[in-house]
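Chains adopt folds. We examine one example:
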Amino acid sequence: MRERSLDADLALALTLNARELLRDEPLKVLLMSATLEGERLATLLDDAPVVSSEGRMFPVEMRWGQPYQAAERIESRTVQTVLRALDDEDGSLLVFLPGQAEIRRVAEALAEPLADRPDVLLCPLHGELELGVQRAAIEAPPPGWRKVVLATNIAETSLTIDGVRVVVDAGLARVPRFDPGSGMTRLETRRISRASATQRAGRAGRLQPGACYRLWSEAQHAQLAAYTEPEMLQADLAGLALQLERWGVVPDELVWLDPPPAAAYAQARALLQGLGALAPQAGGLRLTAHGQAMAELPTHPRLAHLLLRGQTLGLAGLSADLAAVLSERDFQRGGGADLASRLAQLEAGRGGIQRVRQLARQFRGLLRGRVTDPVADPQHPRWLGALLAFAYPDRIARQRQEGGGAYRLANGRAAQFAEPDGLMKEPWLVVAELGSHQGQREERIYRAAVLDPALFETVLAEQVRVQDELEWDDREGALRAERQRRIGELVLSREPLPGLDEEARSAALLGLVRRRGLELLPWTPELRQWQARVMLLRELHACDGTGEWPDVSDAGLLATLEQWLQPYLGKVTRLAHFSALDLPGMLTGLLPWPLPQRLDELAPTHIAVPSGSRIRLDYSEQPPVLAVRLQELFGLADTPRIAGGRLGVKLHLLSPARRPVQVTQDLASFWRNTYLEVKKDLKGRYPKHYWPDDPLVAEPTARAKPRGQ
């Protein structure tokens, strides 16, 4: 195992499973790697012994840079470091950059200063260059010459570049990260791990003592992750899921260094079901004969499905060519996103595409199935889009506006062309390659093909689903019932439904309430107080385990709309009809007898105070608030309590002008410790009112003074 690839993790898990199954014939497992976590592997293998070999490497002197700043562009710092290294060191330089864009910008910035150094060759190196250009970067320079190789992490472990004794490391890598939520892969620029930095630095000491210029500080280096995040945690798991189905196990039955993430694995199985590799059986999903055939092809399940479906239509040659083009990096420079131009280039044999042609021949040799539904016109260009739709049904795309570059995908996502493209005149596309970088809000379309929507009536009919929809029309404020033909989230056609199914109509109305919230219903302040009273008692009784009070919170009501709201929706067809519903009757009906009576006893709406007034309680706060003029409480020793004495109210003591002068839950303490100070202030502001020295024996009053004074 050279590194934590998805295939390596799967192979190890299946090997350990096979060893468990074949106990009578012991299987010995030997793992060799320069970068893996030896202790974790040893633990996984039942504390297997670890043998370490340092190997032969010449010393490499580390040169540290200044701390990276947030969002700093690395090109300027890289160029300065390269020029300094050329002055200070002998030999060729290997410069690690995160991607092609940075390689291009650094090369452009170095062109002028290196023009005065005729003995220096500037060589880019990444996976999308022609093979001859890559070889020129890898081979030793001519005698008396030096090279500056600008590379991605392709040069980190898999290549040895002759003559290199100096490494300049930007400390970044651009890695694909799969998003289970969208089913798409995005490129992210990330800090490398310490293990990766060690691998890169080692390139300077392969042949002789060397130097490594790291463009970050030593303190920042200590903060890097120890190892690179394994591919298992950030990759598309469709291929892994298909192989596990073929093996007959689920992830929980295997031993992993890192198990497949549940969300990504679930998304992979959903894709396999959509491709026909899995089908419902005995309460679960089982591998189909088509899925078995897909698993036997050495390619991604999407392309395996494309190849097999193309074979049945008599399009094996086109399928093999298309699968080969999609399996490799894009070999076309410029010319737009249209895959038809790639296939034309492949057929003409132009542009150094030997690897793609060889792969296409291999796919042809693997397609041995029968042609069951041959098309009448296999040379027609529309079959390219059809084949692509087999592989990427979720990426069928419809133009948002005629002639525009923005499209909506069948999976509900948005995508657009980054620059003008010939395909922008097409209302329907299938997108084979798209993605986004950090900071981009929408997916970018990189490779795609035209789709003829007439195929939804023939070979792509299996992807069309008919669905009766009752949707709320916000513009008209009314229900709209229609039958839709859909490709995922894309609506092909609509036709009105004359009759409304009662169950579906109610479901649509409940969905509207859940989207808009309970404020759509005719709430009153009194009803909100009733809700708060019930919830207060529910909370208090939850502590004693009786649990008899229902959950009438907004969340609880939304979760149970079918029980209390749906029976009353028979006459609701327009938004205005919601305001006519008897919401008090619906909600109070949720309290079985004798809870309505107990509600009034335990959480009364009003409390009688010593003056004889009945004061309303405010249950919008906890504990409930009793806002009462101070003079009306004379003679009351303690705070009023509710809920059978379990909870004291919060007193907002008011002046004669009904302004708060004190907030307390301990009336006795207020009389004892605070009243005299409050009395002085109130007596000065309200001299005509009654302010006794001893409030506990004074006569309460709702007037300025008690009667008779």
Summary: The longest strand covers residues 478-487. The chain has five domains: 6-36+233-294, 60-226, 297-461, 519-600, 605-685. Residues 86 and 519 are 70 Å apart (CA to CA).
